[in-house]
Amino acid sequence: MKTTKKYNSLTIPIFFVLNISSWICIGQTNIDSIKFIKHGTSFGMCSGYCFNETKFESGLITSYSKSWGKGKNNANPDKTDTLLIDNNKWKVLVENVNLIEFNKLPNTIGCPDCADGGVEWIEIGTSKKKYKVEFEYGKDIEVLNKLLELLRHKK
């Protein structure tokens, strides 16, 4: 006796809709997968607070600054400031991350802090890994332009 499988008339269309929706979501970022976004700058030959890094997390912004020239006479002790961030602002940041394109970038772009031009970076931590990209201070990186604009103005 020959056995045949009968499919509900909705089975095949649902299968295709699910597959198409998964293909569309490949380039998008899942808000739950990104745990933090760090943005920072540093200058090798400077005085004052030459290293600045801001860590954005769901509900929290932490800024850390330090100066070069440690010792008893250092007029600029390390400082850390913590602020609450509105969840909608966090969501906007995360929505402007394309993890696939970000992870394709090399760890270093250009010549950061050459001739004391400064270094800027973005580091993104997910539930699976951390990835950091450094580049020349103030430069635009096409894949990161929208995110950079947001990060540079949220401090």
Automatic annotation (TrEMBL):
This is Uncharacterized protein.
